[in-house]
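Ticket #4471: structure output looks truncated?

Reporter: J.K.
Steps to reproduce: submitted the chain below (104 residues) through the standard prediction queue, then opened the result file.
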Amino acid sequence: MTKSQLISKVSAQFPNLSRRDVEEVVNAIFDGMAKALKDRERIEIRGFGSFSVKHREPREARNPKTGQMVKVGSKDTPFFTAGKELRLRVDNGGAKSRKGPAND
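Returned output as attached by the reporter:
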């Protein structure tokens, strides 16, 4: 789903809001999240997941095209961890045919 598709879905769900208003709200949410991550704050959205920033140390890697070793500098990268509820929703409700202590 693209940001434009998200805006369209939200606009359809809330017909009393103009598409422009929905676009401004979606942009404000994304801008706020980006600023929080830039400031190295953790974002937690209950039932969905959490976003954080992880630091990656410099390393040597291989160029897959040429096989040549290249140096990759250190960098900070956004990291997402899905929440339990989201994982279960994606897995179509979860424990279909899993065996375990809770499903015996």
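Triage note (M.O.): checked the attachment and the full token line is present. The helical segments are 3-13, 19-38, 84-90.
Status: closed, working as intended.
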